[in-house]
Amino acid sequence: MANETVTLTNNADGECYELALRHGSLGPSAIDISSLYHDVGLLTFDPGFMATASCTSAITYIDGDRGLLLYRGYPIEQLAAKASFLEVAYLLLYGDLPNETALADFERVITTHTMMNENLKNFLNGFHYDAHPMAILCGVVGSLSAFYHDSIDINDPRHREISAHRLIAKLPTIAAAAYKHSVGEPIMYPDNSLRYAANFLYMMFATPCIAYKPHLLAEKALNLLLILHADHEQNASTSTVRLAGSSGANPFACIAAGIASLWGPAHGGANEAVLDMLMEIGDVVNVPKFVDKAKDKDDPFRLMGFGHRVYKNYDPRARITREMCHQLLDEIPDTRDSPLFELALRLEEIALSDEYFIERRLYPNVDFYSGIIYSALGIPCTMFTAMFAVARTVGWITHWMEMMSDPNNRIGRPRQIYQGPVARDYLPISKR
Ligand code: SDX
Questions:
Q1: What's the predicted TM-score (pTM) here?
Q2: Which residue among 308, 330, 337, 354 is the active-site one?
Q3: How far apart are CA 340 and CA 197, in angstroms?
Q4: CA 42, CA 1: separation in Å to the nearest integer?
Q5: Which of 193, 205, 222, 346 is deepest in the core (most CB within 10 A)?
Q6: Could you give the CA distance from residue 45 to residue 317 in angstroms, rounded to a whole number?
Q7: Backbone angles phi, psi at 379, to 5 degrees
Q8: How confident is the model over 11-28, as pLDDT tens digits?
Q9: CA-to-CA distance for 410 and 408, rounded, in angstroms?
Q10: Could you tell me which of 370, 399, 382, 299 has the C-alpha nearest to residue 57?
Q11: Residues with CB under 6 A from ligand 1
């Protein structure tokens, strides 16, 4: 086994401290500093957690240099090509691919939880017509914590499992309802004769007046996007769910916290920002100007959909979505020459040949092409991050369950380097 300790020398007093090394089944080892402050009186400093492992986990593994993504050990490319989203959801939740019986049982459980409480419609209708779907999702998902008192004991594994099933089942219903609210159409009940992705498209685009059957390729594309967005290690929103859950908070409230974090343009909000950026660029002739803006330190503009904290190679999910774009735009009429897709391809080509992006190892990430697919499916830009949230709910609740079933789980409480005023006495106002 590799060396089990590292030695820390404090040059101020020459003291040396042995720190244990922790090894995973894959990926970098870690220096265990959990007793450092207690033993040595020193903290570590790592804003943004660039080099900090916050937990152990057996769910997802990313190799940023090799552009590798594994869900419970299975490469994302294989799952994207062969699995259904609920099959992947089962894999993430339970750790292994289901056999036919287990998958059928799981699909039945999820399907029977797809409806939302009728009272939620009153809550939904209280939102202004132009409320952002992520604002609605945040509020409505958080409000589910006011409904399910039959499975409220977070220390009961069965209660945790029921909450997980309810969230996976209801997120599409709530997301589609948020869309319907924004377009002033009646909320559609789920059609439980449809598969998960098809049901989601049905609730989005069906109306009580006309029969609607989702296009098979659209269902396949959405199934793929849901799989690609399902989980991704300790990203900002998953870490938010874990930190909220570490205090013993209600699982629905924890997922609402994850939705809030995902909404940011540096995270899940990037897919919407990519489309806004492409529409602002407008034409290939403008690409060099925007690439220069992205490189300009004095300009806050960044190339949305580019770069990643972990991937320093091509995001494997971006490669898969780019291929799906080609297929979709070739097969769905009148989107064939999507100017946005052509523009995105050209932007990628120019950026990837530019020294600034090469030097910083900035590649397209999952958000760069996904919006083009959502657009081709008729899904509006404002719904893109909500689509991401529907998929990532599986990852969030899986991480919550992994943390809650860990006997060593304790409340997360980071420290700080204090830089404020030293202790001083109160002065009466007449003396200030
Ligand atoms: C997701 O964590 C996850 O796993 C997230 C995610 C998931 O599945 O959960 O993969 C989903 O959030 C994907 C990322 C979506 N966000 C975007 O596309 C927004 C644009 N990208 C950036 O904001 C940025 O790349 C981040 C936020 C994604 C990563 O930021 P880091 O790791 O903190 O990197 P950084 O800001 O320190 O950048 C390093 C350098 C800097 O230049 P220098 O100071 O070294 O000169 O690269 C530059 C940055 O200015 N840079 C960019 C850039 N991204 C980084 N310059 C221009 N355009 C960009 N997009």
A1: 0.95
A2: 308
A3: 24
A4: 29
A5: 222
A6: 32
A7: -85, 130
A8: 999 999 999 999 999 999
A9: 6
A10: 399
A11: 48, 232, 235, 266-268, 270, 294, 302-310, 360, 362, 365-367
